[in-house]
Amino acid sequence: MEDKIEEHMRDKFDVILGQSTRDNEWIQACLPTKTHGCGLGRPKDIITAAFAANVEETINAIRTKLPATLEYLALLDAPIDEFDAHEFSSQDIMLFVRSARDKKRIVEEAASSLYESPRLKRYDETLAETKKKTQHFYSDFINRSRAKEVEEILMDNDNATNKARFHSNDGSFAGAWLFNVPTDKHSTIPSNDFRTALKLRLGIVFHNLLSKCCCKDREPIGTNPFHLFACNEFKPALLWRHNAIQNDLMDMARHGNVRAIDYGLSRMTQNDNRKGDILFPGFGTNGKDLVVDICIANACCKSYTPLSCDTQGHAMSILEERKNDKYLRAYKNVGVEFKPLAMEMHGLTSDTFKKFLRRLATEVSDANDIPYCISLSYWQKRLSTTLQKLNAIVLKATQSKISQKLGLQRDIAFDLNDIIIDNGHLHQWM
């Protein structure tokens, strides 16, 4: 039954993607959103955690109220040879004990693979005295073990680009867009764009991309789109994505009654008119003015993958260093604090960016008399959704430009009706 449920889920997921998933892609899709996945959950893992948790949480009560069960309940933790040698009075009882043993063993093996067996043992020993969410606790072991399994497969057998992609979509911010309820334009992703975002997250191949880029090197594309997010030919389109994130931060500041200025910043320093993105007067340390600059890295581009395939956040860290080299001293000389707000296109976000977002979320919470957790959750989802939506729009725009520049007579497989390119700016029909 578990396998049939999973098979049905996978069939429906393949319909959403428009193509079949490979086994590794499906396993990743079932992982939690904060751990590289789409939060689908594998039925077998969910049932395992639920069954094992129910046994652990009720076993003491059953022993007390049903003394006749003591004999077979003792076999739950007995050695395998003792279990095999026992003569059960009922086939149903034997199947129950075997199932309980097998499911708890899966939890124990998951904890062991994470080198956390002592933590699991301590939890079980104190379970009778405390009220805990045992199913969630057991599920966490299983899910993290699955994530480790996927990562080990990638590290052993896959290419550097796929390894970098996997690292780059880690964390709760990277998967926040998958929790959005499409109630307005900020929380809605068109179906084709949603499909593109899923493929980018899971490393699923694109079968409908044009075969080569329009850059001078005519870089081959194949089924891998990541060159398109790094090529200088498409800088105007990548600027749309940057500006969309900037606009969200400006809107967030307005909701929190925080002053935010995104014009005229080149006059603040005497350094070749270079400027950050947004000025927040009085929002820095000890009431200093604060300037932030947004940067979005592509961990899968050729220049980053040799290191980003092994080091999570490498591409993002490089951009942070460059922004600091470019702006930090110039702003410090005029008494202004500077922070780079760095993220990667798959959603991995720097600690500096997350800390800044939490600070703004606090202001929004106070200004609107809403709980902080709701404020932070909304803006994380919104920014995460904006990033993935714009990734899809950028990809569509690259295909349009390549087709036009190379004079290709073919129908683009993307829906281009929702964008108009005009002087390097993006306009969307709302």
Helix/strand layout:
Layout: H1 2-17, H2 23-30, H3 43-65, H4 70-73, H5 80-85, H6 91-113, H7 117-126, H8 134-157, H9 160-168, H10 191-202, H11 235-255, E1 278-280, E2 290-297, H12 305-308, H13 314-332, E3 337-344, H14 351-368, H15 372-405, E4 419-422, E5 425-428
Parallel strand pairs: 2-3
Antiparallel strand pairs: 1-2, 4-5
Helix pairs in contact: 3-6, 3-8, 6-8, 10-15, 11-14, 11-15, 14-15
Could you write a compact summary of the structure shown?
The protein has helices at 2-17, 23-30, 43-65, 70-73, 80-85, 91-113, 117-126, 134-157, 160-168, 191-202, 235-255, 305-308, 314-332, 351-368, 372-405; strands at residues 278-280, 290-297, 337-344, 419-422, 425-428. By secondary structure, it is mainly α. The protein has two domains: 2-152, no CATH class; 176-428, no CATH class.
Total count of domains:
2
* Overall SS class: mainly alpha
- What order do the SSEs take from the amino end to the carboxyl end, as H and E? HHHHHHHHHHHEEHHEHHEE
Question: Gyration radius, to the nearest Å?
Answer: 26 Å
What's the helical proportion of residues? 40-55%
- Count of alpha and pi helical runs: 15
